[in-house]
Amino acid sequence: MKRRLREAVRLELFPRLGPRWDIVINPRKALYDADWQTILREVSRLVARCGNS
To answer: 7: which residues sit within 8 A by CB, 6+ positions away?
Structure first.
């Protein structure tokens, strides 16, 4: 779970923010059962909610 989330954050956030940021994400239990596309979509949605899209 941790590796999948870290990779999704790397793919979605780093191109937008760059490596200078420290990011803390507290995943929910649903992440265990989520497919890869869902994880990517949710990370992208998180970035959009923060106003960094």
So the answer is: none
